[in-house]
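INTERNAL AUDIT FORM
Audit reference: QA-55
Scope: verify that the stored structure record matches its stored sequence.
Auditor: D.O.
Record contents follow.
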Amino acid sequence: MVNELISEMVDAGVHYGHQTKKWNPRMKPYLMKDKGGIYIINLEETVKCLDKAADFLGGLAGKGKKILFVGCKRQAQDAIRESADATDQFFVNHRWLGGMLTNMATVKKSIERLKWLENIERQPEFKSISKKELAALNREKDKLLRNLRGIRGMDGMPDALVIVDSARETIAVAEARRLNIPIVALVDSNADPALIDYPIPGNDDSVRSIRIVLQNLVDAILAAKKG
């Protein structure tokens, strides 16, 4: 099974890191020698870390806990949303708004505002709103929907975050650490694994790489839910 997974990871390019000049020294335990100026990630370490992360998330899911999937880069957006949908969890895949965790009162106000905008035609003041004002309100609704659709039903703090590209999602990482929320993250050779509770070394720029890692986590979550 391990050899089969490693073969799949090689096919998906999970082992390709960044250029050697962009590396983070704390990633050294997870890296093999560079090849053509690019670090090669040790996939045996990736599988070990993936197993630990999957066991952790499976344990949470088995207890009905909340997991928040985060990944706003273009390559991750679809996979993050699909992973959350498949596991009936939550996601942020457009933009991490500062304070999403540390200032949830403000986020909840924005969600209430979104609900109001979605039902604007039923509001008593609707008839008095001009076409220009309505167009502006629709733009506001679309923006809020992009940012909040994946967390609008999340009542309270998540019990863990799953992040694609921890080096990019620095605000999400910082907020989770501040609140002692465990983090599972796909970390490339330029990331700092010391900031992550369950780092999974791997290529975070390839759609196929992101998908294979997330799918293994999703499978663990679904298996735990089935009991």
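Auditor finding: record pair retrieved intact. The mean pLDDT is 94.
Action required: none
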